[in-house]
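Tutorial, part two.
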Amino acid sequence: FERLGSNASLTTDVRVICATNQDLEEMVWKGQFRTDLYFRLNVVQLRIPPLRARRDDIPLLAQRFLGQYAKQFGRPALRISRTAMRALEEYSWPGNVRELENVIQRALVLAEGESIEPEHLPERIHNGVLGSSASSLYEQEVLEFKRRLVLRTLRECGGNRTETARLLGITRGCLHRLINHLSILPKEKTPPPLADPDGAAEMSIAAAQR
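Running the prediction step on this input gives:
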């Protein structure tokens, strides 16, 4: 490669690993992320579902963080009561694993006995104030499915909304409203086809080796 403004060729051997909580493919469509950079990074994808979609991991992660911070704070090993664990499992975790880690750390500081109880958890968790119910989780998943379906079909049709609407079996007006409702694209903007300028295979972000 050559440095910007230089004619001298340099050689390097590195592996670039990138992580994001954003949908970079959608950001490319919106013009918020460079297409050439996307495809330079876009080689192998490792998509990790949000914590709310893998609730079986919550007890394992909670116990791991509990042991980690108990050792760090010089506290004896505590257990998480069944009621407290149920509250952790039923919460929607918008902050994913990092939020769970912070909650366990907080509970360990507040707990005075031999176990972590619901009262040691934030109110939003043990009272379910901000936790998602089954119905709200269902609605979130449905909206996410719709968003990805429309985005994928738009991409396959090269941004042609008439053809996209035909494939989806809806009117063009309905598609327009759906795009705005799901915040897929800026209003009144039709995206260019998502193409790899260097001919790289189309996949979704993760790691790249150059």
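Residues 51-126 form a domain with the Helicase, Ruva Protein; domain 3 fold (CATH 1.10.8.60). In part three we will examine how such features are distributed along the chain.
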